[in-house]
């Protein structure tokens, strides 16, 4: 594939190709291209795990990485993102990994540029590399998506993870339900309750409560959220033996999930992070292979 | 050469050597020294393209690069630049690339230090690596400098690009004219008008309007500047077929140049950026060769 | 050793092992592990030389280094240090070098994690890699520690260098005295005066006056400190011929030491910085060897 922008663009066979390649990287993470490729990670929003995960994947692939600090860049001088990326292309950069607060930031980069764009999170839009690593983690556990019952819990309306994952999981044959406060339901229909979900869920996918996006006027009460929508110790005890718990991290301990459960038996939270490196190696390889 | 500080220090043969070596790097960019050299890019002012360009050149030369973040460095603890650079020398750094807001910042580094200094922009002083890549781009186009008519347009008084380029181009036999608002003329004489220049210019070299240096009291009106001093679509149409348009970037679209012209046929703006990597490889090699 | 947290944990033979290995690195700095290790330098406080020194040591050891910018990381989203480091472990990081303003920050990292922790300065606690490079510098000069008279001058109470060094030097048989303003004496006993120390000191170890820690209410007078506690030109003249002067840097010129003396014959200030790279190579190798 030429770019990775959103999950809508990927067909089932594209997803399968990436997940299969990620498995090969997990089994043998060393890899070198015949050509020396150069990438830049343009993170205009704070991030530890996504940026670090891409950085690790890039090093394992033997890529050159030019550092970019959003805080001291020419975008401070009012440069457009197109001009910044066009400049990187002229310098000889082959691919850029971008996180930006603007939805579909990549639209303005779709014409006139000859480098690969990987979306690492666009505003309240999508987060396709997170989605693919979530899919990888589910397939690793269950070997398939058909008939798997996935419950997504939290701020569905504003979450780029929820959007990407719900779309892809349905396409792949999974049964997706949602639990969320009414004000965070957005365009999603069919919400459930913990009571309905607990006996049947194969995957409980918790979303991060994004305090920094909602602002203070939201009058958010952490304890209340945990009690109503969080994975409490009591709810955890009612899950099926085979059920797994996922979260894109960083976790708000005792909000989305009880602190004691973050590294519990059913938790795949750090497994997801580990898988992310292999999935991102597969993504990067896929877009760079087109440029050999 | 031991350092690259300003264009005054370079004789014509030094310039020729760098331009010729840059051409070799363009034809074959792979290169390794017998010794492992280490460099640091000390950018005390925001920059994307110059810093990225040096970073790319350094990677293509196989150098080790130690990251430096001006915002979290010991200069915050009141350390002098001499002590910072002397420290880097003790750590084992072979060359430093420095951008700093102070004119001739390098003067205090000229005694007692045994590492190479490359000036990547000193205050309102010079910007020699930009000058050399501009020269490279002109030579690439015309094969010579003698008799070439170069018009430099904009804030001549405060531009380090204007100073470096005017000096070098005259030394190399080019004919240099200026177009600028009267208040930005500085010590430069002989200003022209667009009407005089349009029929004869071989190179139209636009300077960036540095809003961040002039401040708000300048009461700068972008539309007015564009109308009086910018390369408008009407003026572009009157240029000779062989004329090229240059700009050090980042461009203020519709100020120095009409947005539609940034990637027009005559524009060499992104070509300049591309050439910058090869020229900087030649500069770095030149100062490091002295340390083999 | 598995981690390097503080000097209390190291026995004399552990110190000897590191100093001997550092000497080997000084003689032959090239080294490659059979395995590709990855490290992250987590500096939550400003630093140039310690961070740069670790970065250089890591490159000389052929390690992969993932960049971490405290200012844009997920700790801004309220993530605990445990979760940040646990995330890095999941990504595949083998060792983290941490500087943090909190004393004994590493306590919360001691269970549940499987990567090596190197303390690069904890609050007003310790700074063990600085201590080891100071020991290396003293041994380089005198070949031994027994009977060596070391005078530590400055803010003993708040200095992590003073704490680490006094502890280790006494353990190794050196004679340690202190000169300090009464309000900065802390729990240390036995303070001396310059008059007592000048005829006998083998090592004068100056501490940095940490303006940024004391704040303005301290009403610190630089000239007064220099006159009472600084190494003035007059005091320097009274030192024994074999005496050396040390300082962890960055130096406040004309406060702890007269500016003219920073690079004087007896000064080992930049030698310490140079030695730091070899000592840190030995530290990193020591913790990574356990993970082969």
What does it look like?
- Chains A, B, C: InterPro entries: Asp/Orn_carbamoyltranf_P-bd, Asp/Orn_carbamoylTrfase, Asp/Orn_carbamoylTrfase_sf, Asp_carbamoyltransf, Asp_carbamoyltransf_Asp/Orn-bd.
- The structure is a homotrimer of 292-residue chains.
- In chain A, helix 4 (128-142) packs across helix 5 (160-171) and helix 4 (128-142) packs across helix 10 (269-289).
- The mean pLDDT of chain A is 92.
- The first copy, chain A, folds into two domains: 7-125 and 274-289, Aspartate/ornithine carbamoyltransferase (Rossmann fold, 3-Layer(aba) Sandwich), CATH 3.40.50; 128-270, 3-Layer(aba) Sandwich (Rossmann fold), CATH 3.40.50.1370.
- In chain A, the strands form two sheets. In chain A, strands 2-1-3-4 form a four-stranded parallel beta sheet, with helices on both faces.
- Chain A contains ten helices and eight strands.
- The first copy, chain A, has 292 residues and is an alpha/beta fold.
- Chain A is globular, with a radius of gyration of 19 Å.
- Chains in contact: A-B, A-C, B-C.
- At the A-C interface, helix 2 and helix 10 of A face helix 3 of C.
How would you classify the helix and strand content of chain A by structural class? alpha/beta
Largest interface: A-B, 28 and 29 residues
The coarse silhouette of chain A is globular
Please write the CATH class name of the largest domain in chain A: Alpha Beta
Q: Whole-number average pLDDT of chain A? A: 92
CATH topology of the largest domain in chain A, anyone? Rossmann fold
- β content of chain A, as a range? 5-15%
Number of helices of chain A: 10
What's the story with the biggest beta sheet of chain A?
4 strands, parallel
Strand order of the largest sheet of chain A: 2-1-3-4
N-to-C terminal Cα separation of chain A, in Å?
13 Å
**What number of domains of chain A?**
2
Q: What is the architecture of the largest domain in chain A at the second tier of CATH?
A: 3-Layer(aba) Sandwich
The tally of strands of chain A reads 8
EC number (chains A, B, C): 2.1.3.2
Organism (chains A, B, C): Paenisporosarcina antarctica
Binding site for carbamoyl phosphate (chains A, B, C): 49-50, 99, 127, 130, 249-250
Family (chains A, B, C): Belongs to the aspartate/ornithine carbamoyltransferase superfamily. ATCase family.
